[in-house]
Amino acid sequence: MMWVYPSLKRRVPLPRHEILIETRGRMEANHRTMIHHRSVRLPFRPCPYPPNTCPDRIHNHIEDLSVDHAEDCCNKNVPIYIIPGQSRLGNLLPYALHNWLYHKWYRLYRSDIEYGQFIAKLFVSCSPPMDTPTVSLVGQINDLNARICSKVASIQKYVQTCPIGERFSPTQTFRDERFYVMQPLFKAVTIILLNDEYDVRMVDVGKMPALLTLTGEEDGLSQQLSFKSISDKVEDFISETIVRVRLNTAIEFVVAQQEREVALYGPQPDPVESTKELENGTCCNMQEVREFANQLGWTGEPLQGPSSTWLDP
What we know:
The protein has 313 residues and is of the alpha/beta class. It has eight helices and eight strands. The longest helix is centred in the first third of the chain and has 26 residues, at 16-41.
């Protein structure tokens, strides 16, 4: 729900520009709360091991993936897998990482937020044996990522067969899945972070080491991926498909690939088509958004279209 706070209500009616700022700002707040909840507060903790063999009992199997988490895998550029370690302070990494990612991605009032669009989804996986070789760890995670993507596809197919109005969870309404798009890069690239390599004294999370990997799944991409564009920033070429870089380099690589795909194929989901319906995937439908604006004194045409276009840069 989008409540009008008493302090704001006392100023009604607001000028048109302020109404748009307040409305878009509230949508941005809802968007950030939603993606933070699904990646940090209650992340999906996938287990790569067969059932009943998981060394960490708190983790989930792929079959446990909910509709909420399945949709949250969509419209993200890359999955980031956090591997637990011995340090308890490493539990703070998802919080610091998500905050760093958000500030790197966010553009005031200009970011596309409909249908959970964001740069990454975080997963906290199981702890592998301490002597696990890097190549084996990467293979395990990339296989896990492929199974998650496959499960997302099956869940989306299932959701579309359900009657409108039924609920899979307290916050999830079954609906048309056209605008929850599994991005090709999400299947083609993974980033792996080791909790033990996170230092809480680190001012810039982007400086922590990361494994950047190519999964070999390139369907839907305009060209084959390689690390040629970041070769001067690679600290360790483990193989043709695995490199060790700083997190900032890994994210810049993903962003550059996504920008190339958008330049060729256009943004997905389509920003105009995806905002025509009352549902917009931002924890508040357009009817609520319009009612909120009306309470602030909006008298123009009903708000519609991508909210990233409502305000001038």
